[in-house]
Give the backbone structure.
Amino acid sequence: MAALNAAKRELRLLMRKTLADVSADSVASQTSNAVKALLASPEYKAAKRLSIYLSMPKGEISTNAIVRDALSEHKKVFVPYIHKLPDVPTGQPSSVMDMVSLHSVDDYDSLQSDSWGIPTPSKDSVTGRENCLEEMGGVEADSSTAGLDMIVMPGMAFDGDLNRLGHGKGFYDYFLTRYQDSIRGMIEEVKMPFLVGLALNEQVLHHGQEIPTSTSDWPLDALILGDGTLLKASKPSSSWPVSSLGLFRTSLSLLNWQSLTSMVAYRRYDQLERANDNFFASL
């Protein structure tokens, strides 16, 4: 596990360096392409209840237009709300992410930005919002329609197998595990949301490279790139986190990234990228 975490940290470091060089004009152009592709997808059109991440000011696809479109189409929109637990069970994180509803465009526009520049519901407003997991004592959801049809997810990096690397807090993976457990008590058959990631082209690893993963990491069902390309899993993967097959891929990924990270202290970033390409080409 220590090696896995080290590999993920190193990949995040490399990705931060890459994203720092992406211009605002490029992000805006890629956002336009990705948003058009998402809004045209049959999964988005069919979704009545969906969660949408609220984007940072830079370094990722903006979801502003998606939120506004979904609300204008009278979809039920949920957004992340991170809070600390009063009593933390052993082995569980002290802070968790829930998905709480937006009332309207005006409500969305009134959200204040947190320290990351992300619009966030205030603590005082949460009790008046629907929580899709019904766990925070807010407005109760109708159990016949509770849950989510789609989750639009952020990430720092993505690969061709639709794995994602988050920012390191595990909020989405832990939320999905809690969601899977909670939804069992609401409906007879567990149906997980359609998981779609949005990625700048620079956030997608080169062919042959893989995100280091463990069995607690949830893969995506689809990934939309900044050029408008839509990648889909060959079969739905959102009913389970990375399977035992992922353990083999994790071991391979760790070997790959350990070979690369040993050079970080001695080589510039562009040299590391060339060594990375040569390494995978030799496999």
User: Anything to note?
Assistant: The helical segments are 2-20, 24-40, 42-46, 64-72, 105-110, 171-183, 244-261, 269-281.
